[in-house]
Design a protein that fits this description.
The protein has 8 helices and 11 strands. It is α/β, with parallel strands linked by helices.
């Protein structure tokens, strides 16, 4: 039995679609139910429907063999896993954002306060990459408010279309990382269940390659 942890919602649906395209029967995972564990002994697949931030934890500790989760969650959680495939969907960017007036001037602001739902990513970027000490303010929602009311100079958040930023007079100042859904595998499971996991990884990689080729062809 292979146990797969999925992020509830859109990522789970896309992951199930990809597994199905790769030749796996995922009907158990599509069951309309309030159950958090969905399994089918005939197919040998068990699905755990979890909160995105919990998926890496389940995989690291072996409660799940495989997980599908956003790169933002992996960066923030910092779990000890094998990251094996970039699935490409759920694409967005993790960015430093702030008032348009700060474009090109971010490095001129000393002792910055940075608001974010992602304190670990924020700290790693400013202190690790930029070698700059900042004050990090943890928020759980509507981080765009922070620079508007003077709580912080800038924010670190996920940006998809950028529409919310523009409507609030904010813009992307720097890109921290490209984000998309990733497949992660428990390190012990990779060895103990190699005969089952490696074919699944190969099948998913082929489907991702096919989809990427189709997108490239459509873009010509």
């Amino acid at each position: 039995m292979i146990t797969i942890a999925l992020s509830k919602g859109r990522l789970a649906e896309k992951a199930l679609d990809l597994l199905e395209a790769a030749g796996y029967d995922v009907s158990a995972g599509r069951e309309e139910s309030r159950k958090l564990i969905l399994e089918d002994e005939k197919t040998g697949l068990r699905f755990i429907m979890a909160k995105p931030s919990d998926v890496p934890t389940y995989v690291e500790y072996g409660a799940a063999d495989i997980g599908v989760v956003g790169k933002d969650t992996l960066l923030e959680e910092g779990r000890n896993l094998y990251e094996v495939i970039d699935l490409g969907f759920g694409a967005c960017r993790m960015c430093v954002c702030g008032p348009v007036s700060l474009k090109g001037k971010l490095d001129q602001i000393p002792n910055k306060r940075v608001a974010s739902k992602y304190p670990n990513i924020t700290r790693a970027y400013f202190e690790g990459t930029k070698k700059e000490s900042v004050e990090i303010i943890k928020l759980n929602g509507s981080v765009e408010l922070a620079p508007l009311i003077g709580l912080s100079e800038v924010i670190v958040d996920i940006v998809e279309s950028g529409r919310t930023l523009k409507e609030n007079g904010l813009d992307v100042l720097e890109v921290v990382a490209d984000i998309s859904a990733r497949v992660v595998v428990n390190r012990v499971s990779m060895k103990m269940k190699e005969a089952e996991i490696l074919p699944m990884i190969d099948a998913l990689r082929k489907q991702v390659a096919i989809r990427n080729a189709q997108k490239a062809a459509e873009g010509k």
